[in-house]
Every structure is written in structure tokens, then in C-alpha cells.
Write a structure and sequence with these properties.
The mean pLDDT is 77. The protein has 2 domains: 50 residues; 157 residues, Histidine kinase-like ATPase, C-terminal domain (Heat Shock Protein 90), CATH 3.30.565.10. Helices cover 37% and strands 21% of the residues. α1 runs antiparallel to α2 and α4 packs antiparallel against α5. With 224 residues, it is an alpha+beta fold. A hairpin with a 2-residue loop joins β4 and β5.
Length: 224
């Protein structure tokens, strides 16, 4: 069951603004602030509940809407570079974004879920790369098996993944046995990401060369 007290909060907020109820301006502003923050908290709680269900093996439930993929990606990058993010540790100018000048078809996605996928991928990229090595994000349109996708690549120059482990990376709780870095994590990020991408009718793929480069690609179905 979703955590939803929007209707009750909305009623209380509207009642507080009724002309028969005398309230000073500061009290009205405070009521509005409490209302807005409560809605934000509700959304965060619902998002964590959804991710917990996916981690337990449940199919991802999606709230799909069409959006320009360049607009979506730009908003995501801005959201992680303009404020501190406890999952993604970024140095100065550590992300390079590359987008084709051509127009891209819109994608039909659950924006919060795809943000989760991108955050999982970037979290790994930043954990397994030196702070002075940039991360590149690129976006383009592709056709695979007669279907139209928008592909987002995230490329880092970190320690990479051993060839024999590439077939294991999407399994729940997988952690590399060859990684010498002391990194924290539960090994669920890529498993959750795969579940979300498949629920969209999309894909996630990984290519890696040890100590050279790792590229994670997600394929988002378009509206055409």
C-alpha cells in the first residue's frame, strides 16, 4: 500500500487559507512549507518502498510518461552536481556529458526509476575510479532488432571487471572477488537496475577492460 496522505494534507492546507480563519502571513507560509515538505517526504518513502520490493525480486511497477531524453538526462546530471549526494562522490568537473546535435525521439519511462538506475551506475563508477579520472556520459539513438531505443552510456576509467565476472554482475548480492579497493555496498544496485530496465522493455549491458575502461549502457524504448 502506498503511503499517501496527500488528500488529508491538501484539505488541511486549504482550510488554513479559508478567509474566515485569521492567520498571520508567517503562519500561512509555515503551513505551506509544511505541506510541501510532507509531500516530498511521502514521495521519498514511496520510492524507497518500491526499490525495496524490487530488491526482493518483485517486478518493478512503473508510472510511465513520455519525455525528451536530453531534457531528462540534463536534469539528472544537474541534480547530482548541484547538491551533495551521499551515493555519488564527485570531484570538480568530473562528469563530461556528450549528446548528439540531432533531435532524439522521446522515451516512455518512469523517470524516478530510471534516475535510480543511473544513480546505481554512477555510484559504482565513482567508487571504483580515482577522483582525478573523469566519467563520461553520452546519449544517442540506436536501432536493435528492429526496435528504436535511446542509449545512454556511462564510461569510467577505473579498475574494471574481470572477463570471467561479467556474466555474474547482475546477480543479487554480487561483489567482485578481484577488487582490491575497500568499497562499501550491498551488491544489489545492478540487479535492481536490470529489473527496472527489463520492466521498461529495455536493456542494460556492460563492457569492461581491466584497469582501462568500463562502459555501462542502458537502452530506453522510444515512443516511435
Amino acid at each position: 500500500m502506498k503511503f499517501d496522505h496527500h488528500s488529508q494534507l491538501s484539505w488541511a492546507f486549504q482550510k488554513s487559507l479559508h478567509p474566515k480563519i485569521s492567520m498571520k502571513k508567517k503562519k500561512i507560509q509555515l503551513a505551506k512549507s509544511i505541506f510541501e515538505h510532507s509531500i516530498a517526504i511521502r514521495d521519498i518513502v514511496n520510492e524507497y518502498m518500491d526499490i525495496a520490493k524490487i530488491a526482493s525480486g518483485a517486478q518493478a511497477q512503473l508510472n510511465l510518461s513520455p519525455i525528451d531524453p536530453k531534457v531528462f538526462l540534463n536534469r539528472f546530471i544537474n541534480s547530482i552536481t548541484r547538491k551533495k549526494n551521499k551515493f555519488i562522490k564527485l570531484g570538480n568537473d568530473s562528469i563530461t556529458a556528450i549528446a548528439q546535435e540531432k533531435d532524439l525521439p522521446k522515451v516512455l519511462i518512469d523517470q524516478s526509476k530510471i534516475k535510480c538506475v543511473l544513480q546505481n551506475i554512477l555510484s559504482n563508477s565513482t567508487k571504483y575510479s580515482a577522483s582525478d579520472k573523469p566519467i563520461t556520459i553520452s546519449i544517442d539513438s540506436v536501432f536493435l532488432d528492429g526496435r528504436s531505443f535511446v542509449k545512454i552510456d556511462i564510461i569510467d576509467n577505473g579498475c574494471g571487471i574481470q572477463p570471467e565476472e561479467l556474466s555474474e554482475v547482475f546477480k543479487p548480492y554480487w561483489r567482485s572477488k578481484h577488487n582490491s579497493l575497500n568499497t562499501q555496498g550491498d551488491g544489489l544496485g545492478l540487479s535492481i537496475s536490470k529489473n527496472i530496465m527489463e520492466a521498461h522493455g529495455g536493456m542494460i549491458r556492460i563492457e569492461s577492460k581491466v584497469n582501462i575502461e568500463t562502459k555501462v549502457s542502458i537502452f530506453l524504448p522510444t515512443t516511435i
